[in-house]
Amino acid sequence: MTHQQKTFEVKEGREYDIIVVGGGTTGISAAVAAARDGAKVCIIEYYGFLGGNATTGLPWMAYHNLNGQRVIGGVAFEFIERLWEVGGASDFYMDPVCSSTIAVNPHWWKIVSMREVKKAGIDVILHSLVVDVDFDESGTDGRRRATGIYMTNKGGVHHLKGKVIMDCTDSGDIARMAGARMVKGRAGDHKTQVASYTITLGGVDVDPLLDYFRQNPDDIRPFPIDNIEALLEQMVEAEIFIIGGLRKLIAKARRDGLELSRGVMPGLVFPKTGEITTVASCIEGLDPTDPESFTKAEQEGMKQTRQWIDFLRKYVPGCKKVFLSGTPHQIGIRETYHMADAEYLLTGEDLAKGTQFKDVISLGGYHVDIHAPSNDGHNDAYVGPPTFQIPYRSLLPKTIDGLLVVGRAFGATHEAQAATRVIPLSMAQGQGGGQAAALAISSNRELRHIDIEELQDRLKKQGQILDHTGLPRHPRASMFQVASVGGHVSLHQSDK
Asked: Which of the two ends of the chain, N or C, has the fewest CB atoms closer than 10 A to its terminal CB?
């Protein structure tokens, strides 16, 4: 059967200094930072709102390192301050595993992020999908240069020109269209971290749940924690606390015949509102670039939702009357593609050693959090790295000019990305990339040839933290010690 070839009218749109593709937290931070440095910026977003995964109700983790020093500043911290102004975020709480955590109201986040983006003078185009990248031959050393994008929406097909294209998508969509070499998941077998359908449940009676944890302190988290008394003390007063265990109850439910996809239940408890948000569902093999795979994953996530609600009602103290109060706009994806031909590939070893980079653009202090494929979605071991650095070179594809890959798909291995993927770290990286793009335009230089010291000076002026030495510690930091969790995760993770 033959198909008639069709042509489409392409409408010419505006020309920008920087086109940011992807309006999640990474893209928002990149766009705001670049616009404040004088660039004319546009954000293109598939959904009808900005914020991406931050709108699912999950907390933002790891503004601090495991010593309790705040290592994320700049645009990422400024947005927390804007949320505090409208009552849209809790206080920070230190955590012996996740460094720190803060509850963020997802509805306020949508509103605040849009307000701040518009305040910065950024054009926003929602409900639009980029379908191709435009090139010319003006790149250096034989490289092609990305010069624009083609996007589609209900208004038709549009062409926008840009001096710099920033790929802030969760799957490196623009980098793949542009021909950058990408690797899916782990380099050895291309398996990715499992995906989860994030749900929020109301009707939780927190006091019986806390009583259970007092009687079973080894069931709060998936591995032993030395100073459990301090954690229990904080949980009583906190606006939010993290759980990740319930192994004993899950094991009993499984013996009784209940099908549960994990041996632990990772999630967050919100005592003031009587809610639990959980990412307990566990879906392997999702490829968001394959519509059939994506659809099956969404269906499986919804199916598992009922199983976890049944578990909570029947087995978990204080959860007998829980009800479904929130579902996500899409299934939560932890990992897809990584840029394999970045100028520098960040590794798990870099994080574990705290490798120092002359072109550092942001810091991080989150642990190597691998929701392992084919392993019940969980690692039994843990490693908390020192404060680590993200180098600018990891955003640069070797073979393409005019393109930066920022956020989850940047140049990092499976292990390194497991620590850098959380929201504050992605936002800090986004700011680094956004200001680098603005500097390249204002100085009329290639992205790979900008003055790094000038970039770092600009980042510091916008509040970015590039050196964690001498920073004050969080008031609650003394409750937990750096090495409070036993075990070490292999930086060459394999299935059990």
From this structure: N
